[in-house]
Amino acid sequence: MSKSYNILAERLESNDKDFRYMAASDLLSELQKGPIQLDPLMQNKLCAALLKTLQDTSSEVQSIALKALPLLLIQSEFHLLETVVQVLVSNLLHIAEDDTKSSLQRNTVVSAAKNVSRDNCLITLKSLLSLVDPNTAGDSLIGKKVIPKILSCARNNSSLEVKLDCFDILYDITSRFSFVIVQVADEFVEILSGYLFSPHNMIRKRAIHCLALFLANAPSTHLQSFMDSLLSDLGHKIQVNGQAVDKVRNSLSAIQAICKVAGSRALHPYISTITELVLKLLEDPAWTEDEELYESALQILELFLQNVPLEMESFQSSIVNVLENALKYDPNLVEQDDEEEWEQGSDSEMEEDDFTDDEDLSGKVRRVSARCIHAIFLARNFYKPSFPLPLLVSCMIQRIQERDEQVLLEILSGLMDLLKNISAYADEEKNTEPSIYAKVLSVWKDKSGFIISKLQPSFKSRSLSLKNTVLLFMKEFVVACSAWLTESDLMNISQFYIEPCFVKENNVSIQFDGIVLLECCAPLFRRYNCASHLAVFLTHLVNIGAQGYYRVTAQSLRTCKCICSLLTQQDLGIVCVSDALLQVNNFAIHRLEISDQDTEVKEAAMECLSTLCALFPELVSSSKDKSLRLILDKLQDEFVRITAIRSFSNILQSPLRTKIDDSILLEFWQQVISLVRKKDAKLRESCLESIDNSITLIPHQLDSSLLTELTGWIDASEWKRTALILEIFAKLLALREEEGFLLRWKQETYPVILNLLVSSPLQGKLKDSVVHLFQTMMCSRRCCSYFPVTNVFQDMLSLVENNPRMHSSVMKNLSSVVSIFWKSNVDVKALCPTMLNILEAPLLDEKSKSSKLFVLFILNELGYMESVKELDLSDKMEAVLYQWIRGEDEEVVGAAAAALGSLIRFVDQRGGGISQLISFVRRTETRERYVYLVAVKEAILCQIHLSSLSLLNDMDALTRSLIDCVQDADNAMQETGNREKVISTDSLGATTTSSHIISSSSSMKESIRSISSECLGILLAVSPLRLFVVIQQAMQSPNVQVRWTSLLAVKAAFSYLTKTESSVDLFIQYLQPYLPRLLELLEDPNADVDTAAISLVTTCARLCPEVLKDYIAKILNILLSHTEHRPDLMKTVDLGPFKHSVDEGIALRKAAFEALLALLPSFLSSFQDENVSERLVDALTKGLKDHQDVRGVVEKLFNYLLTNEDAFQLLLASKDGDSKLSKIVAVLSDMVSSKPKENAVAQEMEKHKELVRATMRLIYEMEKVERCRQISSFVELLSRIHNNELLQSLYEAVQNEKDIAKRD
């Protein structure tokens, strides 16, 4: 092997160029394969040969040598690498190398290296620096041998070329070896700082970038020292107006470079100071005369507005003034049209403006200011009434006459993003800040005519990019502002922007964007009854689509379809409309006839053609068969056949379907049946939709084999496909009356559908399809003889009895199907005695229980059916239900209570009803009291569903009765608890209380309160105006349970409104006057009332945060106080031989943290108060060590602070940027280091393990945040975890969990 390398070394020095090339190429190939074993002599020999080759006359040989030499040196002994690097550095920097002490071998390498050109030295050094291992060669080679030479050269060498190379190498060293430079950091910063104000532009820029890179990676003390010095010097220079412009500009460039490299977060402590200095510069005309300085200052503002917009809020008025002036900055503009004359402006306005210099730099200033305003548009924190956003919008709109193309592009881009985002922001935050959006939209409304007129000259420019941007802007403008665009505005848009795209433009991208703009404007033409204009555009679309470019053709056809769908039969009276529609029809047919058309064009043509056939069948009747035949042919094309099926289905749903030839319809049916058998889910779904649409035309074509296949495809997991199949079956049962089909369907399909009912809970479209199918079975003249009501009921009952462990939700599916029998025109009288017999039968086994539950669910369903006015045997059923309510089986008791609540309306005429149930509540014992309240709740829901007037009349009395029930229940429970105290005296004479009796009593009391609050909440949601007075009185009750219940009632009202998708606006309107009293209960003496009040605040924070904004400071103060442990809530329970401490404040603290988490997104500015943020971090540190229920919420809150960029500032708000995070890191470190008790049982060991895992999850989230990784204590914590095998395994497990969750 050494011999072969020796040959390569000799050939590298050969006189033959080909030998040198092949030798260099072979050596590079070997080095790229991996490490090679060479003795020191051979390493020196190859190295010297490659160094000489760097000066080869052949550029190809040089190129290979430049790649091979770094690879050889990395694999050689360190002293050789050290020698070559030192010589190359000295050669590059023109430093004499002392080689008197070198060995003969080393002299050979040194002499070869000295002859390398400076360019090749630079390239080789850069390659070596990217390959050298920082751990092995960082300090010994780079730190001690290279950096001192470079710094010395940078300080003393006067050659411009050498200094440029010096900074070039220094930048590469800084990017990989910044830890080495720290050793000479003071000298490094001093030397580079001296070049910040160099007169040579290239040297100054390289020094700035090198310094910024070092400060971004070095310890924060160096950045702090440098920034303090730089800002102090900058402040002194700014005091002298207009002097030292170059130095001020260079200082701004340094700040800008540091911000880009290190990030705005690294400059967080200095952002306010920098912003103040920059604004001071921008507000002083003496400084803004220099346009480069003007641009640099604005660029810093742009960086801050993009990266730290929250920090800019305190300077909002100054920023707006500065940006407004900068956007208008155009000193070379001598004459400009008055704003008031825009309505009479001509097409040549921009040509009439006179400019003194077209090469000025003011355009750069305006462009940066436009980018700054663009950043404001994208920052959500500026969307508030206190910020003058409408002024900036107006200013940007006013500048759409901008003469500089790049500036105008930036302005239009910013305005487009504003239009895209403002509607989304308005929908998302309409509850918090609705007014700002109305103001901004008002500006757009006022400026609509101005925009349409003044943007026209820009559209006439020769720049394609500008034309495209103008059309895209107009599209967003029309979409956002369509509500107030007048007919005149529409005609101007048509004349100025749309028509030129068809008449004057040949560029396909312009044509495409123009067609898209027309599609957006089409509904406006329909609004103003401009059918003739639409007809003209249809002609234009046909002409431009015929040019052949597929994107334009496809978009033309799509827009034609859009316009056709807007036209009506009345518009056909206009001759030009009929002619235009015929042209479109012929154009679409022609495109389908061409065999080599693009797929996108074919699909658009079929959709357009089907729309015409569906909406205007008489007009296109002459080409009807041809159109249908073309669409049928496309069923053979696997790329477009789904579109073809849908297009044909669209025609089948139109009036034309009755006039389709049977042969065409039969062919379509046969092809669809063949395609539905293919194993393609989307294709099968489309085919089933077509069968559903066409089955009424040829129902007898569905043969027995397809019936079997359709039955086999019934699957609850494929709900959409199954719903379509059931709809097909419903239509078939209604249309086909022959005995053979019905008998086959009953034998094959009916059992499968019954199994579907018990397979899983049905909902949505699938449930509707099942109901429709059974309605058809009951109502169809022939079907009802094959499926008698009693037989179907017995089939359902058999399913229930054969599956005694059937889930209640599945059983409710069956009951809802049975309940529709009462809607059908069939005799159901025979069912009531059967159901009564089932109810009266004793509860013997699981089978009888299932049948009983089934009947109870049916009765519950019937109570909600408005069409059912009376129910046979309802009085007897009621009596039976009262018996079952007193039963022992909880599931039957609950179902009986719900059925009784629904059944009440059938017996209400006898004087009973809800009031009777209430009377039972107040007379019965605690357990039955709860059950009767369940019945009351069901009765209320049923009456609301049916809009019962009796409920409205008795609502006040019912509300007071429910509140009295709560109070009575509390008193009764106390008496029961006193009676059931088990007193026993031991040998020492001690007395003990049965903890079972106490816990049972407390649980039942809470259940009664909960169900009462739900009833009250439903009533309150229905009639807030009448009942809020009663609820307020309940809040002032001396009874704790009544106050607790009244608060939960308001929360239950919100829950009811959201569950029923009702509007909460009216409810909130009535809530606001009573809100102060509600919030007073946050400080109630009873902890349960406090918890209920906090849960109500949480609900408001999620649904209507704006109602809390006037009280947010008080709420935050109270919530933060509730996160602390309260000694009075620590109870000691005597368990005989030992005592157990019970913390009754867990629920309170958990609720407080949940409320803080809910309030944080809407009221982030309130959390930014220094006192609040400090208390929040203190609460977090304590909460992380709290009970696991509390800790779970605290972890969510901390995760939100970490992942939300704006909220993360709460952890850095103090002057000492690391102080708050360091507190949390200290807590996490203690939790990681904690150990379970020595005598801990298995359950305690598992709890401790889960605590460590939860801590690891938080550490993993922190590690992803760059700012956290800069905290020394956190770095130490990570190091401790990685060095501990057990902790490392837990950490890796957490990482794997997160990765799997992210992939899922």
How would you summarize the topology of this molecule?
Layout: H1 2-12, H2 17-33, H3 40-53, H4 59-75, H5 78-93, H6 104-114, H7 118-131, H8 134-156, H9 160-181, H10 185-194, H11 201-217, H12 220-239, H13 245-262, H14 271-282, H15 285-288, H16 291-307, H17 316-327, H18 349-352, H19 362-378, H20 389-398, H21 405-428, H22 435-454, H23 456-459, H24 464-481, H25 487-503, H26 508-527, H27 531-545, H28 550-566, H29 575-593, H30 599-615, H31 624-633, H32 641-652, H33 662-676, H34 681-694, H35 704-712, H36 719-735, H37 739-759, H38 764-779, H39 783-786, H40 789-802, H41 808-819, H42 831-840, H43 846-863, H44 874-885, H45 890-907, H46 914-923, H47 926-945, H48 949-953, H49 955-979, H50 995-1022, H51 1024-1035, H52 1040-1059, H53 1065-1071, H54 1075-1080, H55 1087-1103, H56 1112-1122, E1 1130-1134, E2 1139-1143, H57 1146-1159, H58 1164-1167, H59 1170-1183, H60 1188-1203, H61 1219-1233, H62 1242-1263, H63 1272-1283, H64 1285-1303
Antiparallel strand pairs: 1-2
Helix pairs in contact: 1-2, 1-3, 2-4, 3-4, 3-6, 4-7, 5-6, 5-7, 5-8, 7-9, 8-9, 9-11, 10-11, 11-13, 12-13, 12-14, 13-16, 14-16, 16-19, 17-19, 17-20, 19-21, 20-22, 21-24, 22-25, 24-26, 25-26, 26-27, 26-28, 27-28, 27-29, 28-30, 29-30, 30-32, 32-34, 33-34, 34-36, 35-37, 36-38, 40-43, ...
